[in-house]
Amino acid sequence: MRAYIIRRLLLIIPTFIGISIVTFALIQLAPGSPIAFRLQGMEGTMKSDAATQEIIEQTKELYGLDKPVPVQYILWLGRLVRLDFGDSMKDQRPVIDKIGEALPITLQFNLLSLLLVYLISIPIGVYSATHPGTVRDSAITLFLFIIYSMPAFWVAMLLILFLGGGEYLDWFPIHGLQSRGAESFSLPMRFLDRLWHMALPLFCMTYGSLAFLSRYMRAGMLEVMRQDYIRTARAYGFSERTVIWKYAMRNSLIAIITLLGGLLPALIGGSIIIESIFSIPGMGRLAFEAVLSRDYPLIMGNVAMASLLTLAGLLLSDLLYVWVDPRIKLG
In the chain, what are the domains? Predict the structure, then answer.
């Protein structure tokens, strides 16, 4: 086990370098530039072509854009080793500070969303698998199919219209994370106020993954329930509850553990659409603004963190396989 973990950790290094090289090259090939974006904000102060050219050269020198692309990448990689993501081209603030402000907000939403998804989808999937072909199973399947088919932005607009003071009920706030004057609230009231503001966007971030994982859990359970050891457990006289929850469910978890590696990057990636609709200053909106402004250091900072978390998620999935099924050997 220890040797396997060490090999996988060492493998992360060349994998991450490959991902960062591809991302860095794609950013360079994208149309537009941070220099043009900066000049757009200075249209009223431009006096001559000479002044424009001077600003262009100063900006290139400031951010190292006057150097060849391979040299730019090596310089960025050298700063990354020191945990220095550089300064944002948009407002000259350190990238690590901007990520540090947005990351806790995104983590609040996505950790709660991930917890709710697994807590709800596993029982739903188990129930559907143990009652296949029944009216309730068909109703659950139809309901999950419908909610999985609904786009998140459309659901968000409906929630605002019907529950956020649009034209009907005004039950939930639709922007920000706290009420005005929340600093004076007691700690329990601040907690409840935060949950109140998070309710609608959290629902939009959760329902799609819930439907998706529930179907995976059902499929995994149906496959496990056909195995010989399940029939043997029943023949030994174990109760149906014990057979399902102790033997069948644990082995069927492998199907959704595989998906965990892909869900972990969402913990810091955020949701661009939902965060923009509900005015949430999280990682999704930060990445979107970075792309619009061609903020290369901020884009690479976001990609670096998402890549590392993806690779860590894949390693965690492999380790969870062994925990769920000790028969699996890592090699």
Answer: 2-81 (no CATH), 95-324 (1.10.3720.10)
How large is the average pLDDT for residues 69-82?
Answer: 81
The secondary structure of 1-17 as a DSSP string is -HHHHHHHHHHHHHHHH
The answer for residues whose C-beta is within 8 angstroms of residue 118's C-beta and 6 or more apart is: 213, 256
The DSSP 8-state label assigned to residue 243 in this structure reads I
Residue range 252-273, pLDDT digits in tens: 877 777 777 666 666 566 677 8
Tell me if 108 sits within 8 A of 267, measured CB to CB.
no
Q: What are phi and psi of 294, to 5 degrees?
A: 55, 45
Pick from 260, 314, 318, 331: nearest CA to 15: 314
The pTM of this model reads: 0.77
Spell out the residues 6+ positions from residue 25 whose beta carbon is closer than 8 angstroms to its own.
Answer: 69
In this structure, is the dihedral angle defined by the CA atoms of residues 152, 156, 158 and 163, taken in order, positive or negative? Answer: positive
